[in-house]
Amino acid sequence: MKAKTLGELRRTYPLGKLKRTVKDEARENLKEKLRKGERLFPGIHGYEDTVIPALVQAILAKQNFILLGTRGQAKSRILRSLVNLLDEEIPALATELRDNPLRPISPEGKRLLEEAKDEAPIVWITREERYVEKLATPDTTVADLLGDMDPIKAARKGTGMADLESIHFGLLPRANRGIFAVNELADLAPKVQVALFNILEEGDVQIRGYPIRLPLDVWLVFTANPQDYTARGRIVTPLKDRIGSEIRTHYPKTLEEGLRISAQEAYVPEEVVLPEWIRLSVEAVAFAAREDRRVDQTAGVSQRLSISLLEVVAASAERRALIQGTRPVARPLDLYAGLPAITGKLELEYEGELQGAEKVARDLVQRAFGMVLPRYRPRTDTIVAYFEEGNLLTLPEGSVEEALNAMEEVPGLLEAARSLAESQESEVLLSAAEFVLEGLVGRRKLARGEMSYQAAERTRSYGN
């Protein structure tokens, strides 16, 4: 049974725990997880040998830290998962600042302890309640973060403005004994950044003109874009100097890493079949975009592109199956149906703007198929030779059987498809065969019309 008063707490709770700071608490719990071999950040993939070791070191060193990376690199998710390093519940005085029952720092907490002594009421705070997050915006003020005088509170208490209990505390003091996260730190106005100096260096804040000094117990963590986090960007250099560790995040380094993230995050109905070559091609679109000179690389290409595209590909396959009465199996043409999920995720350079977002997205899809095809090593010599003889393949819309019958005219195409597809199901076989063709288009061996394929030298309208 949890203690309800300070007296009960003294008798039933290990008081040594109340002497720990929030960084001590996270450090001890992290050490225990490491000893047990537990996974530290569930749902975070691709950072096992890079970001996570740096995070562990910063936590063991009891440092405030910042995650630097472009959009869609799981920075916010990492910060929010830090609550798993805190105790499930901690006791506190029933005050705005969730004062430590043994060492209150607020005027209200000190008064409560002096008046009630062992009868002071105790509340229990969950780990989730101990995480406070603020998205930095240019209009954020010092009062928002630290606090200000509150005439309404003073009037209600019947005291003057000089009464310390008339202070309205900001987000940072209210995060006392917890984690305070600021997203996009460089977007704070310089004077607000300066207001953070004290809490980072001396561990205390001063509010307005009040003669009060609050030695807060707060773990400060931040995120920022590397482009802004420079002396030439929007960051105050002395603030950088006061942050313990600067940890760089990154996009998935392999298609498999990206695939695990997208499979975890994307909504895909159970009945929709997404063959491996489709999933890999979806991931390859983002990889191609991160290398394309028409895309602004300083803005980054978020992992959300792959997640959104995978969802739209599944939806396109489901829509086709409902209309045709077939099994919902995703095909390469569904990636072209997913262009709206790509165009909104790209920040284009001048050349890309001239060509248009849809043209750039279509080129990226074609290049993605070309990146993935060599993984399967299908035999394609006879397929390319057939088209070099001047033949044209037009795929009929609608019937799967009609499309497969048309593909039988291309020597080696269905054989190459069967080498990919473990299933002999007609919808899966068609998806594999279409992927082989699209892969050859992506590798500039064939040219593609809306639903037709021909030799590359007959139509040279692709490229970057």
Key terms:
Rossmann fold, three-stranded antiparallel β-sheet, single chain, disordered C terminus, 12 strands, 44% helix, 464 residues, alpha/beta, elongated, 11% strand
List the helices and strands and how they pair.
Blueprint: H1 6-12, H2 15-18, H3 22-36, H4 51-60, E1 65-68, H5 75-81, E2 89-93, H6 107-116, E3 122-126, E4 131-135, H7 142-145, E5 147-149, H8 151-157, E6 167-169, H9 171-174, E7 178-183, H10 190-195, H11 197-201, E8 218-224, H12 237-242, E9 245-248, H13 255-265, H14 276-289, H15 304-324, H16 333-337, H17 339-343, H18 350-355, H19 357-372, H20 381-388, E10 393-394, H21 400-407, H22 413-420, H23 426-442, E11 446-448, E12 452-455
Parallel strand pairs: 1-8, 1-9, 4-7, 7-8
Antiparallel strand pairs: 2-3, 5-6, 10-12, 11-12
Helix pairs in contact: 13-14, 13-15, 14-15, 14-19, 19-23, 21-23, 22-23
Structural summary, described in words:
Residues 168-225 form the Sigma-54 factor interaction domain. With 464 residues, the chain is of the alpha/beta class. The protein folds into two domains: 6-248, 3-Layer(aba) Sandwich (Rossmann fold); 255-458, no CATH class. It contains 23 helices and twelve strands. The chain has helices spanning 6-12, 15-18, 22-36, 51-60, 75-81, 107-116, 142-145, 151-157, 171-174, 190-195, 197-201, 237-242, 255-265, 276-289, 304-324, 333-337, 339-343, 350-355, 357-372, 381-388, 400-407, 413-420, 426-442, and strands at 65-68, 89-93, 122-126, 131-135, 147-149, 167-169, 178-183, 218-224, 245-248, 393-394, 446-448, 452-455. The strands form four sheets. It has a five-stranded parallel beta sheet. A hairpin with a 3-residue loop joins strand 11 (446-448) and strand 12 (452-455). It starts with 5 loop residues before the first helix and ends in a 9-residue tail after the last strand. The model is unreliable at 458-464 (pLDDT under 50).
